[in-house]
Amino acid sequence: MSGMSFGAKFKLLREAKGLPRAGIDELFQLTPGTVSNWENGYREPEEELLPDFASFFGVAIRDLVDDAS
Protein backbone atom coordinates (compact mmCIF):
# COMPACT_ATOMS: atom_id res chain seq x y z
CA MET A 1 0.00 0.00 0.00
CA SER A 2 3.01 2.21 -0.28
CA GLY A 3 2.52 5.47 -2.14
CA MET A 4 -1.23 5.57 -1.47
CA SER A 5 -3.18 8.20 0.41
CA PHE A 6 -4.87 7.38 3.69
CA GLY A 7 -8.26 7.42 1.97
CA ALA A 8 -7.19 4.98 -0.74
CA LYS A 9 -5.69 2.61 1.84
CA PHE A 10 -8.75 2.86 4.06
CA LYS A 11 -11.05 2.11 1.13
CA LEU A 12 -9.07 -1.01 0.17
CA LEU A 13 -9.10 -2.27 3.75
CA ARG A 14 -12.80 -1.51 4.20
CA GLU A 15 -13.74 -3.23 0.95
CA ALA A 16 -11.59 -6.25 1.85
CA LYS A 17 -13.75 -6.62 4.98
CA GLY A 18 -16.89 -6.31 2.84
CA LEU A 19 -18.17 -3.27 4.72
CA PRO A 20 -20.02 -0.32 3.23
CA ARG A 21 -18.94 3.18 4.20
CA ALA A 22 -22.03 3.57 6.37
CA GLY A 23 -21.08 0.37 8.20
CA ILE A 24 -17.76 1.87 9.29
CA ASP A 25 -19.48 5.14 10.24
CA GLU A 26 -21.87 3.18 12.45
CA LEU A 27 -19.29 0.75 13.84
CA PHE A 28 -16.99 3.55 15.01
CA GLN A 29 -19.82 5.98 15.86
CA LEU A 30 -18.78 8.49 13.21
CA THR A 31 -20.95 11.16 11.66
CA PRO A 32 -22.61 9.86 8.47
CA GLY A 33 -20.41 10.67 5.49
CA THR A 34 -17.17 10.78 7.46
CA VAL A 35 -15.63 7.76 5.73
CA SER A 36 -16.70 9.13 2.36
CA ASN A 37 -14.81 12.35 3.09
CA TRP A 38 -11.68 10.38 4.00
CA GLU A 39 -11.84 8.10 0.99
CA ASN A 40 -12.38 11.02 -1.37
CA GLY A 41 -9.44 12.93 0.10
CA TYR A 42 -11.47 15.79 1.57
CA ARG A 43 -10.41 15.12 5.14
CA GLU A 44 -8.26 12.80 7.23
CA PRO A 45 -9.20 11.20 10.54
CA GLU A 46 -8.25 12.44 13.96
CA GLU A 47 -4.98 10.85 15.11
CA GLU A 48 -6.63 9.27 18.14
CA LEU A 49 -8.76 7.08 15.82
CA LEU A 50 -5.76 5.50 14.09
CA PRO A 51 -5.02 2.84 16.75
CA ASP A 52 -8.64 1.64 16.61
CA PHE A 53 -8.58 1.42 12.81
CA ALA A 54 -5.20 -0.31 12.78
CA SER A 55 -6.45 -2.89 15.26
CA PHE A 56 -9.73 -3.41 13.40
CA PHE A 57 -8.03 -3.91 10.04
CA GLY A 58 -5.06 -5.83 11.46
CA VAL A 59 -2.40 -3.44 10.17
CA ALA A 60 0.22 -1.18 11.73
CA ILE A 61 -0.67 2.47 12.24
CA ARG A 62 2.21 3.46 9.98
CA ASP A 63 0.56 1.44 7.21
CA LEU A 64 -2.52 3.67 7.40
CA VAL A 65 -0.71 7.00 7.36
CA ASP A 66 -0.49 8.93 4.11
CA ASP A 67 2.88 8.35 2.49
CA ALA A 68 1.96 9.60 -0.95
CA SER A 69 4.51 12.41 -0.82
- Work out the helicity level: 40-55%
Radius of gyration: 11 Å
Strand-pairing-aware structural class: mainly alpha
What order do the SSEs take from the amino end to the carboxyl end, as H and E?
HHHHH
N-C termini distance? 13 Å
Percent strand: under 5%
The average pLDDT score comes to: 91
**How many strands?**
0
Tell me about the biggest sheet?
none
| H/I helix tally | 5
Instruction: Flag low-confidence runs.
Output: none
User: What is the 3D shape?
Assistant: globular
What order do the helices and strands come in, and which of them pair?
Blueprint: H1 6-16, H2 21-27, H3 34-39, H4 50-57, H5 61-64
Give structural notes.
It is a single chain. With 69 residues, the protein is mainly α. Helices cover 52% and strands 0% of the residues. It contains 5 helices and no strands. It has helices spanning 6-16, 21-27, 34-39, 50-57, 61-64. The longest helix has 11 residues, at 6-16. It starts with 5 loop residues before the first helix and ends in a 5-residue tail after the last helix.
